[in-house]
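Annotated sample (chain length 306).
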Amino acid sequence: MLAAVLLSVNYSNAQTMKKPLNDFEKSVIIDKGTERPFTGEYTNFKGQGTYACRQCGAPLYRSADKFDSGCGWPSFDDELPGAVKRTTDADGRRTEITCAKCGGHLGHVFTGEGFTPKNTRHCVNSVSMTFVPASEKPAADKIPAPKTETAIFAGGCFWGVEYLMQKTLGVLSTDVGYIGGRTEKPTYRDVCSGTTGHAEAVRVTFDPARVSYETLAKLFFEIHDPTQVGRQGPDIGDQYRSEVFYTTPEQKAAAEKLIALLHDKGYKVATKVTPAATFYPAEEYHQDYYDHKGTQPYCHARVKRF
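Output written by the structure step:
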């Protein structure tokens, strides 16, 4: 689930200029429409190079990852690192893909179809992309590695914390899991037994150029009640405790600063600040729970505290 925005590539002026979108391009890229199958200019295109976002010019796909699926739209079985963001559609049945840099609609991604060994198909509208021949820019594998940072927060049921965190601009991916316990590879049942010492937590991968850790930490303190001990709302047990698991000294300092601010405001903060240990991803059915279910969190809502 690692993703990041590719911000450091040097393009020519022609490649970095934002092209004004015509009405049809807007209907797809902005309004999330779909071009008719077999009509896009890149459906059967065989050029060697890189496919970039039509709206912002960020590189998205290598021509080497393009294949013919017969679906009527350009198909790719992989994307450039951090170039594409996935979001579950409102109907909970499909996964939308957008440009991670500007949010422009690309299409949808499907898995399990068996077209290629990667078992993945990015079904992309031609109108959402432009093509840059290999001769006009550095090869895709020369693009500098994206910069990302990881934050881990525990604030009650991880379903609700993830749901509200992943709506933040600059958050590239999230996964829920277990951290801070005494046993390896715990299951949900193990953690619920109260014998492992783990907390339900959310691991957030974000782009620090677009959102700061302090902003995410403020959100964390406002979407759960940091004064409760061993519970969060109707969920009771140590696994629902409030805890920040920092991955850098800077994160530790930011969390402690915010706790001090809350103390000054009269909140009796119970949140612990702890070095991050091994994070064990939870079972698949816990990931993106509310997006798949199509409902809202039952015990998490943002309350202004700063």
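Annotation: Residues 1-17 have pLDDT under 50 and may be disordered.
Annotation: Residues 172 and 206 are 5 Å apart (CA to CA).
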